[in-house]
Amino acid sequence: MRVLVACEESGTVRDAFLDAGHDAISCDLQPARSRPERHMQGDVMPALDWGWDLVIAHPPCTRLTNSGVRWLAERDLWNDMEAGAAFFNAFKGCAPRVCIENPIMHKYARDLCGQWTQTVQPWQFGDEAFKRTALWLEGLPPLVPTNVLTPPKAGTDEHKRWSKVHRCPPGADRAKIRSTFFPGIARAMAYQWGQL
C-alpha cells in the first residue's frame, strides 16, 4: 500500500506502516526526526495528487481545538481558524482511504470541518496516557482497541503521569509534546488498515 502521512515530522505513523511492509512517506514543513530518506520536507499540498492508496493527515490544530477556543474572539483569530479549517478540509477525498486526525474541535471548527467518525485514547492501544483524539475516516473502518489498559484514578500520581500531554508547562517544546501521537494507535492503523 502506498501511504502518505501528512504533517508528521516524528515518523511515528510512517514508521508503523513501514514496519508492517508498506511503502510509506511522511511530509512536513519540519525536517524528520528519523529516517529522512522516507520524508519530504515542504508543503504537502502538491503531493496529494500522487495517487496514494491511503493518506493519514495530522493538520495543525492550533485554531481548531477546544483548548484554544477562548482566544478566537479575545485575539480576533477567526481568519486563522477559517484558514486552518480550509487546510484540514483539503485532505478530504484526496485518496480512496483517508484518516484526518485532530484533537476534539470546538463548535466553530466542527461547523466548518464536520463531525469526527470516532475518538480514541492512547490507553486503549497500550500506551499509558490520556489524549482523546478524533479521527475523520473515509473508506476506512473505525479502529478497534488492541490493548486496553485500566486508567488510574483521578488525583493519583499515576493519573498525573498519564496526563503529561495536558499538564505540559509552557516552554520551547510545548507544541511538540502536546502534538504527540502514540505508537500503539499508529501500529493499530498500520495493521488494521494495512490489511484492507
Number of domains: 1
CATH fold description: Rossmann fold
Structural class: alpha/beta
Number of strands: 7
Radius of gyration: 17 Å
Any guess at the CATH architecture? 3-Layer(aba) Sandwich
Number of helices: 7
**How far from one another are the termini?**
9 Å
Write out the strand line-up for the largest beta sheet, numbering strands in chain order.
Answer: 3-2-1-4-5-7-6
Question: What's the main sheet like?
Answer: 7 strands, mixed
Q: What's the overall average pLDDT, rounded?
A: 93
Written overview of the protein:
With 196 residues, this protein is α/β, with parallel strands linked by helices. It has a single domain (2-153, 181-193), classed as Rossmann fold (3-Layer(aba) Sandwich), CATH 3.40.50.150. 28% of the residues lie in helices and 17% in strands. The protein has helices spanning 12-19, 70-74, 78-89, 107-113, 157-162, 174-178, 183-193, and strands at residues 2-6, 23-28, 39-41, 54-57, 97-103, 118-120, 133-138. It has a seven-stranded mixed sheet with strand order 3-2-1-4-5-7-6, with helices on one face. The radius of gyration is 17 Å and the shape is globular. The model has no long low-confidence stretch (mean pLDDT 93).
Question: How is this fold's topology laid out?
Answer:
Blueprint lengths: L1 E5 L5 H8 L3 E6 L10 E3 L12 E4 L12 H5 L3 H12 L7 E7 L3 H7 L4 E3 L12 E6 L18 H6 L11 H5 L4 H11 L3
Parallel strand pairs: 1-2, 1-4, 2-3, 4-5
Antiparallel strand pairs: 5-7, 6-7
Helix pairs in contact: 1-7
